[in-house]
């Protein structure tokens, strides 16, 4: 949305060209998502499901009654902001949709007080497969690896199972760290900051060539 507005409005006022700057869009998007989540969470968490206690968890009794499934709030905020600040692309819409599906799976699991590990694992696998297909769209996929100058082109029949496995492991790795307060969020924030910086640098170098 904002990149499209930038293209339409720059001719009337120069500063609107900022809406076509990835660095500006990433910064304003992060700020909008953070402020919206900060505003919405304390006003909505009373409507979320509540922890019923977890078997073998440390201080499980103390956790009883605490709100869970907060992803319903901040992932929804993320999805809206992402579609607002990113250039429109059906592939982006599909990826954001997969993230929302993964969030709904976790929310419904919290609300029902447990779907079971095998059922959740199968649903995670299905979302991962859908995400992999969305990324490559059954076409050859070009990837760039650090320390390699030449990008690699991968057949969709190789990319889809590999990407599905990577996404499935990432979902479960996030679930494993989610029980440690702040660890999942902290790791994700650091990963996105460094990944964003690296990709921005790579894109800048390619433009200079």
Chain-wise SSE layout:
Blueprint: H1 2-9, H2 22-44, H3 60-63, H4 71-85, H5 90-111, H6 117-136, E1 141-143, E2 152-154, H7 156-178, H8 183-208
Antiparallel strand pairs: 1-2
Helix pairs in contact: 2-4, 4-5, 5-6, 6-7
Summarize the structure.
About 65% of the residues lie in helices and about 5% in strands. By secondary structure, it is an all-alpha fold. The chain has a two-stranded antiparallel ribbon.
Describe the protein's architecture and organization.
- The chain is an all-alpha fold and 209 residues long.
- The protein has a domain of 112 residues.
- The protein contains 8 helices and 2 strands; from the N terminus they run H-H-H-H-H-H-E-E-H-H.
- Strands 1-2 form a two-stranded antiparallel ribbon.
- Helix 6 packs across helix 7.
- The radius of gyration is 20 Å and the shape is globular.
- The mean pLDDT is 80.
Features:
209 residues; mainly alpha; 2 strands
Secondary-structure-derived class: mainly alpha
What helical percentage do the residues reach? 55-70%
Element-level helix/strand string: HHHHHHEEHH
Strand order of the largest sheet: 1-2
Strand count: 2
- Intertermini distance: 29 Å
Proportion of residues in β-strands: under 5%
- Name the overall outline: globular
Report low-confidence residues grouped into runs of 5 or more: none
Radius of gyration from CA coordinates: 20 Å
Number of helices: 8
Largest sheet: 2 strands, antiparallel
Average pLDDT score: 80
């Amino acid at each position: 949305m904002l990149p499209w507005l930038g293209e339409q409005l720059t001719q009337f006022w120069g500063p609107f060209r900022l809406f076509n700057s990835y660095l500006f869009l990433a910064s304003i998007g992060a700020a909008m998502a953070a402020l919206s989540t900060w505003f919405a969470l304390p006003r909505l968490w009373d409507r979320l499901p509540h922890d019923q206690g977890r078997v073998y968890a440390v201080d499980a009794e103390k956790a009883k009654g605490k709100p869970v499934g907060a992803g319903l709030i901040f992932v929804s905020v993320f999805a809206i902001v992402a579609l607002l600040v990113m250039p429109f692309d059906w592939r982006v819409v599909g990826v954001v949709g997969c993230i929302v599906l993964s969030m709904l799976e976790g929310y419904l699991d919290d609300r029902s007080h447990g779907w079971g590990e095998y059922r959740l694992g199968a649903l995670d696998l299905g979302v991962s497969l859908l995400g992999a297909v969305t990324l490559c769209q059954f076409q050859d996929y070009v990837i760039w690896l650090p320390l390699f100058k030449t990008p690699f082109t991968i057949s969709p029949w190789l990319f889809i199972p590999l990407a599905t496995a990577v996404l499935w492991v990432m979902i479960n790795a996030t679930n494993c760290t989610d029980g440690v307060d702040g660890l999942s969020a902290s790791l994700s924030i650091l990963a996105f900051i460094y990944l964003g910086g690296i990709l921005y640098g790579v894109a800048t170098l390619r433009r200079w060539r």
